[in-house]
Write a structure and sequence with these properties.
Blueprint (H helix, E strand, L loop, with lengths): L4 E7 L4 H4 L13 H14 L6 E4 L3 H14 L3 E3 L16 H7 L1 H8 L14 H17 L5 E6 L1 H12 L16 E7 L2 E9 L18
Helix pairs in contact: 2-3, 4-5, 6-7
């Protein structure tokens, strides 16, 4: 596949809201100190990856993670708002427990991955969100045939791209990890993604904190 694009997907480093199981969505939450360490470790191992471009969600936690990579590779970060996390409407800023207690019916539809469910007050449903993610990643990958690029983004975006690469429906239960500052690899060719490797966190083996795997709203 000489014209395939190698796509390196990176979830942003840890935030205080990841630790507190609080939905971030499109709110601009910064990395915590540990997240900055994770981003630095990720950048160290990707410095010799042969990347030609670094694209990032324009939300602060992703951009700070991308900046760590840019500082090691010398590449400029290119903001891509279409790589933002899913909009979660009035769920944003709430913990999982608060959502379950306050809106049990909506919480059930969300946890059951109802593709048509959109959290009220501006949330996205899974159908529209997944289409946004896959379209954006496909557009960026198509710019770089035969090259390697990094996309620094969010757990929900990575989840959508994993499903697209392996052909899983949106409502299927998740059985794969989405760790903070994990490295994930896809190939893009002939208009579609294929999976190469997922949730590589070997660079975080010295991590003193347990990984945050639940990426809903992150």
């Amino acid at each position: 596949m000489p014209q395939a694009t190698r796509v390196v997907l990176i979830r942003h480093g840890q935030t205080a809201w990841n630790v507190g199981t609080r939905i971030q969505g499109q709110l601009d939450i910064p990395l915590n100190e540990h997240g900055l360490w994770q981003a630095s470790r990720m950048a160290e191992v990707l410095v010799d990856e042969g990347l030609q471009a670094v694209y990032s969600s324009d939300l602060l936690r992703a951009r700070a993670t991308a900046d760590a990579l840019a500082s090691r590779t010398g590449l400029a970060v290119q903001d891509e708002p279409a790589l933002r996390e899913r909009a979660f409407g009035r769920f944003e800023g709430r913990t999982y427990a608060e959502i379950d207690i306050t809106w049990p019916g909506e919480a059930l539809r969300w946890r059951q991955r109802d593709p048509a469910f959109a959290p009220p007050e501006g949330g996205e449903n899974l159908i529209d969100f997944s289409a946004r993610c896959v379209d954006a990643a496909s557009r960026l990958a198509a710019r770089h045939p035969g090259e390697a690029i990094a996309l620094v983004t969010h757990g929900g975006v990575l989840d959508s791209l994993y499903r697209a690469a392996v052909g899983l429906p949106l409502q299927a239960a998740r059985s794969w990890a989405l760790g903070n500052a994990s490295i994930n690899r896809l190939l893009f060719a002939a208009g579609r993604f294929t999976l190469v490797g997922w949730n590589d966190d070997a660079h975080l083996q010295e991590d003193p904190d347990p990984p945050i795997q639940n990426a809903e709203g992150g």
